[in-house]
Amino acid sequence: MNERQNQDPSEAGRRTELRSRIRPLGAETADEVFLPFLDLCFNWSMDQPRVEVDELLERDDAAFYFKGWGRNGDIAVAAYAEDSNASDTTDKASADQDLHPDIVGLAWLRLAAIDAVIEKSAADTADDATTEAGSRFTGYGWVAADIPELSLAVLPDHQSQGIGGMLLDVVCTLAKMSGFPAVSLSVADGNGAARLYHDRGFVTVGRNGASDILVRQLK
């Protein structure tokens, strides 16, 4: 008996309903859509000093993850609230700002800019601390030029409902369909989200400061 046959009918119905609320975001998505979820990614621990949104807007490492959305390789999927009427909206470009309060979870992928990767490679080859300090940011979970980094967050009131896992499955499926060989991410020590990633096939491939770098192969 396979997993689907063994699944409780009510649980199968719940997953189907949840999947129906997950939709891709377009290249024209406004910066404001990402900010509540970027905030959660940077401020996942109450034991660490909080980084305010105004500061995130000024930081190069934060800007890397959302500024200029719509670059080659950008993929994002959103989970909408149960009463969202987003599917009835036809003018997506003008509706983003009105709809983003209905988004309760977001998963998105971004490649490092190729010139930043070249700078990083040159710094690593030179083994020069000055060169490395001046190189552009390529992401906390960067592993390779052709592997996008994943960011994922769910609003607190909607956590522990399976939304994160569903978002992860959908965004990885889209990444595979787009031809990416794998996706990567960075998860800090003590972050309980690590369990979700390991359960979904991510493995630890390295360290970046106090964080593990994880990769999930897609091929």
Structure keywords:
10 helices; 20% strand; 219 residues
Strand order of the largest sheet: 1-2-3-4
Biggest β-sheet description: 4 strands, antiparallel
Summed over residues and divided by their number, the pLDDT gives a mean of 86
- Count of DSSP H/I helices: 10
End-to-end distance: 26 Å
What portion of residues is helical? 25-40%
Structural class category: alpha+beta
The ordered string of helix (H) and strand (E) elements is HHEHHHEHEHHEHEHEE
Give start-end ranges of low-pLDDT stretches: 86-97
Number-wise, the strands total 7
Rounded to the nearest angstrom, the radius of gyration is 18 Å
Q: How much of the sequence is in beta strands?
A: 15-25%
Query: What global shape is seen?
Result: globular
